[in-house]
Amino acid sequence: MGVVYEISARDVAALNKSEGYRSSRDPRQNAYNRATVTLNINGELVRVDTYLAEPQEGTHLPNKMYMSHLLDGARHHRLPEDYITLLADIACV
Questions:
Q1: Under 8 Å between Cβ of 91 and 61
Q2: Residue 60: is its pLDDT beyond 90?
Q3: Nearest 5°: phi and psi at 51?
């Protein structure tokens, strides 16, 4: 569930930095890695890039500000209520 955005190469570079992704290092050392996936958007198959979290030891909870941002976006884009409830139930710090 989510939203797809078209962003510029400059925005991709900023997002890579923000997500701790560097293509030049061992993927296990990245916080997130980029992957290309195929989505069905209104019956059209579209290839898009996404970020996948690299497994890390310990418990890593999102902070309240980040979760609030996700919930605001989900509501703004009218994502299904059960998905919004799922997001709202995630524990935060």
A1: yes
A2: no
A3: -110, 135
